Amino acid sequence: MGKSPAVELEVDDRVVRISNPDRVYFPARGETKLDLANYYLSVGDGIVRALRERPCMLHRFPEGVTGEKVHQKRLPHGAPPWVRTVRVHFPRYNRHADELCVTHVADVIWAVQMSTVEFHPWNSRAADTEKPDEWRIDLDPGETCTFDRVRRVALVVQEVLAELGATGFPKTSGSKGLHIYVRIKPDHGFQDVRKAALAFAHEVERRAPDDVETTWWRKDRDPSLVFVDYNQNTRDRTIASAYSVRGFPEATVSTPIRWDEVPDVDPREFTIATVPKRYAELGDLHAGIDDAVWSIEPLLEWAARDELEVPDEQ
């Protein structure tokens, strides 16, 4: 069977050509590359808000999600002139990369044309890539951990955030965990944000010791517990953004949810087949995140009180 003819999508004032539009990317239900592009168009404002002005690593699947996965930091060759980049430095290797910097939904659709399924942005922005403005709380379940336990821990996170006066914006990970994002003042470097995240993780562990642990090495963790992964705030550590599709055959989506949905949420229900309708009805549940900026100073005080330190970044 020959390749299907390319199609052109009008994305506001730009045109993006999608080659091989009928290539099946997600075999569970048969969704194609064109279905993926149309999904991202359906959540356009939300995915752009999640990625805007951030260096973004791309997870590309040229043959669909059951084929080879390519982790791409540098912008793929052949980008049109309107696609922006931001340069980031990697001290360990003394190298740099010009990464995708989304400002428009057409940038996302062009990345799909380049076989991108997942979008993994930094938690800092182009204006100062060394000063994060997003604190990420990653509830990472062990191999035998139940999702009920993840839900319980999320509600403890909500409780602690409320006491701190911080607003958390929850979402499914698109896999087995939950993420909560907090918009923060870009006043500190990655090490301080990571230290603040560690102090928060310790407080959650103190309140829910039967459900949570903060052990550094995976091999030493109890697989039945939830790891509050403060390391996701390390420089150059990225996780799938809100509205990012995940590279699984079922085409699950990392989906913003309301706090009142947490006790009953089932992440498997959020896919490229279901999220567009939800988005049309509810809009972007993270739309207010830029209006809820918080300072991490109280958490740095906790870290100093508890004499917490994190290893140097490499």
Automatic annotation (TrEMBL):
<dbReference type="Pfam" id="PF21686">
    <property type="entry name" value="LigD_Prim-Pol"/>
</dbReference>
<keyword id="KW-0436">Ligase</keyword>
<dbReference type="InterPro" id="IPR052171">
    <property type="entry name" value="NHEJ_LigD"/>
</dbReference>
<feature type="domain" description="DNA ligase D polymerase">
    <location>
        <begin position="32"/>
        <end position="286"/>
    </location>
</feature>
<protein>
    <submittedName>
        <fullName>ATP-dependent DNA ligase</fullName>
    </submittedName>
</protein>
<dbReference type="GO" id="GO:0016874">
    <property type="term" value="F:ligase activity"/>
</dbReference>
<dbReference type="InterPro" id="IPR014145">
    <property type="entry name" value="LigD_pol_dom"/>
</dbReference>
